[in-house]
Design brief:
By secondary structure, this protein is an alpha/beta fold. The chain has a single domain, classed as Carbamate kinase (3-Layer(aba) Sandwich). It is built from eight helices and twelve strands. It is globular. The structure holds aspartic acid and magnesium ion. The site of magnesium ion has 4 residues, from loops. It catalyses: L-aspartate + ATP = 4-phospho-L-aspartate + ADP.
């Protein structure tokens, strides 16, 4: 049995139909015998709409209140996604960032993850449930306040969960088929890459590729998490982002799980 973390961005859960489509995909992964943890972003443009709303009540909303407001977006999508999965007859439970143990520093709007204590997520998996975690949010122990990780931060939530749970792979679902040599919408002959190292991915991200959030790639490299960037619209293999020291992470992880004594 593999442990798979799946991340779905805002465009993958933009409306009820999309949420049901994503739920089906999660259920298929679960029914194939895997343990599944999902990190989900807010629906569609929710985060932008919440920011606009804040700007309409004051020019200075303040970091703490802004984080409280923005994290509501992911709370909506996680609950709806969990309901949709349960509607398909599979047990699912949603968790806020703090419930899932995403501990951060205290910087509102750009917090960094300092620890992950996913006890409740592990417990849900042990009971056969799919765990749905709100992306992009955490909790600071000293202030006791809710934080956000910066725009696009759900990728980091997924990678951090994958690292803390020793997942076999972290699948990042998006609306393109993977990582390309150039933007396929601009350069029609751009080629999809089957495999790339996290070093190369960091270079692409620095050069403007927006497919993966740079902090998430750094986190994956530091913690040896294999990423699989793929489309939520088909079942094609996407692009594997691997870590050179651990070229075949999948194999080395399973051999680590059962050490030869
Ligand atoms: N909803 C947040 C944003 O739009 C986080 C994310 O999408 O990853 O930035
Ligand atoms: Mg978003």
């Amino acid at each position: 049995m593999a442990l798979i973390v799946q991340k779905f961005g805002g465009s993958s859960v933009a409306d009820p139909e999309s949420i049901k489509r994503v739920a089906k995909r999660i259920v298929e992964t679960r029914k194939a015998g895997n343990e599944v943890v999902v990190a989900v972003s807010a629906m569609g443009d929710t985060t932008d709409e919440l920011l606009d709303l804040a700007a309409k009540v004051t020019p200075m909303p303040g970091g703490r209140e802004l984080d409280m407001l923005l994290t509501a977006g992911e709370r909506i999508s996680m609950a709806l996604l969990s309901m949709a999965i349960r509607g398909l007859g599979v047990e699912a439970r949603s968790y806020t960032g703090s419930q899932a143990g995403m501990i951060t520093d205290a910087q509102h709007g750009k917090a960094r993850i300092v620890d992950v204590t996913p006890g409740r997520v592990r417990e849900a998996l042990d009971q056969g449930a799919v765990a749905i975690v709100a992306g992009f949010q955490g909790f600071n122990r000293s202030t006791g306040d809710i934080t956000t990780l910066g725009r696009g931060g759900s990728d980091t939530t997924a990678v951090a969960l994958a690292a803390a749970l020793s997942a076999d792979v972290c699948e990042i679902y998006t609306d393109v088929d993977g990582i390309f040599t150039a933007d396929p919408r601009v350069v029609p002959r751009a080629k999809k890459l089957d495999r790339i190292t996290s070093e190369e991915m960091l270079e692409l991200a620095a050069a403007g590729s927006k497919v993966l959030y740079i902090r998430a790639v750094e986190y994956a490299r530091r913690h040896g998490v294999t990423l699989h960037v793929r489309s939520s619209f088909n079942n094609n293999e996407g692009t594997l982002v691997v870590n050179p020291k651990e070229e075949n992470t999948w194999k080395s992880r399973s051999s680590r799980a059962s050490p030869a004594i």
